[in-house]
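Re: that chain you flagged

S.,

Sorry for the slow reply, it's been a week of failed gels. I finally had a moment to sit down with the sequence you sent. For the record, here it is as I used it:
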Amino acid sequence: MLRPGKSLLSLKPIGNSSLDVRAVSNERLNDKLYLLVNSNHEIATSQLKTSDIDQESNIESKIQIIYSDESSNDAEIKLYRKRWIILLIFSSISLLSAFNWIEYNIVQDVVIFYYNQSLPDDPVKKIDAVNWFSMVYMLCYIPLVFPAMFLLERKGLKLSCSIGAFLTLAGSIIKCFAVDQNLFYLAMTAQTICAIGQAFTLGIPARLSALWFGPNEIGLATSIGVFGNQLGTAIGFVVPPHLVQKKDPIDVIEKNFYYILISVAVVCAIFFVLSIICMIFVLIHLRSFHSKKFFLYLIKIYQLAIK
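Prediction finished late last night. Pasting the structure tokens below so you have them in one place:
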């Protein structure tokens, strides 16, 4: 049991770094252990000093370990080879999102011809309706950019990228079921889902490069991340016009739409699964890293504190 009162243990490993252990006891409560870590550096127990602080009876029984590092600017940043795989997965998701954005509008005349039965009768309104396949991306991005950035800041890259990949996959799958002359509005619903997904991916390149890459690689990593989106747009300008043409019969147009949409959905599914696998491996790595680095120190410090 801890003695009533509060004791302070200070470990000074390297430079100005410090690890403070504060033990507060209350006979009515069980002892609890809290670890508040603000740095990832090794802790060397070369210097150890204790001091007593006045008793505070109204505080729960607990041990607080507070590690602060004032010399982190001089620490060497460790880079992992998997950062390029993560960048490739993100760039591919961004590519697919951009392809989904332009795949209908680049063959506007074919879309109007194929979905003619479920479009307005006015020719101008038909064109406007098809144009919304593209404009819905801009419309969704304006209100969603702030919650998407908030989620990216608070929850990190893994969740934001996974949400964007999942919504892109969901929209791509729904598009496959919308290949019917009377299902224009279902296709628009699927396009809207893809547009919502893009709001969660457009802000990722800069943060991904800042967190996973070294100072000399940030520009290159950001460029690659943005290039994926531009490449997807370029592919969207080239592929659909070659496969879907207005001169073809309706059944051929429908078959070619299936080819495009099913292929995109399959590729989206592959990269969504890869993003989930990547997220799991990163979580396992972080958990293993923290447990190996701090668990032994927790045990030693706890033993010192309860003596």
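What I noticed first: The first strand starts at residue 5 and ends at 11.

Talk soon,
D.
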